[in-house]
Amino acid sequence: MALKSFTLDNRNFEISYDIVNANAKKDIVFLHGWGSNKEVMKSAFSSYLKDFRHIYLDMSGFGKSQNKYVLTTQDYAKICEEFLTLIDSSKDIIAGHSFGGKVATLLNPKNLVLLSSAGILEKKPLSVKLKIFFAKLLNIFGLKNFTKVFRSKDVDKMSENMYATFKNVVNEDFSVYFSNFQNNALIFWGEKDTATSLESGKKIASLIKNSKFTSYSGDHYFFLKNSKNISERIENGIS
Question: Where does the sequence pass through the membrane (predicted)?
Fold first, then answer.
């Protein structure tokens, strides 16, 4: 593990990262999803794609990269861009899972790899809509502290700045960004994904003109069991 510290927009960041195949000439960057970390991506792909230098990083606020600010998805893209510049990385291939897929899209790599990417707004279950309604109602009456009872266990463990960041990024419609992406894209999806539905994956594939879509049996983390085949498709599908 290595650390890279830098200042961006008068804010200080320290990014934890690992590099595999350090002497390879082309790079592939892996961006994890919300609540995840670089170790998940590394466990899936580090044994494959031998001709590429793998760059695994913990995005700010996850894994071993601390964060004390309220961020947006655009902020995450700027942080990653600065980090990649500082380690002299190209943007040959950037692979993003879930939230990382949105960040990867904003980075505009030569080859974009999306793994069950977030970015398509989906209908919320009635139970979720009711939680949001009552949380907003409590905020109106100045009872913000009581809104915590409506948070999921995962959200409740977040620091206040990461919870505010989560609210910034959770309901974004990235359709325009997908439509505007002009480079090569490989899109992979889990057929039983309940976090980002298969239909969302098909929609993203229809929005990105130069894209190929492949689905696998599995859930939101389908790539953990299909990383070998995905890696082969990346090797054969990049421009």
Answer: none
Q: Is 7 helix (H, G, I), strand (E, B) or coil?
A: strand
Beta-carbon neighbour count of residue 143 at 10 Å? 11
Could you tell me the pTM of the whole model? 0.89
Tell me the HSE value of 16 on the side-chain side, using a 13 A CA sphere. 14
Return the amino acid letter for 90: S
Measured between its terminal Cα atoms, the distance across the chain in Å is 30
Residues pairing with 111 in the sheet:
93, 184
The count of other CB atoms within 10 Å of the CB of residue 152 is: 9
| Residues 41, 223: Cα–Cα separation, whole Å | 9
Closest CA to 67 of 163, 177, 171, 205: 163
Give the pairing of strands 26-31 and 11-20.
unpaired
CATH numbers and ranges of domains, the chain: 2-121+172-237 (3.40.50.1820), 126-160 (no CATH)
> Can you list the positions of beta strands (E) in 147-191?
184-190
Confidence at residue 1, expressed as pLDDT on a 0 to 100 scale: 86
Q: What percent of the chain has pLDDT over 90?
A: 82
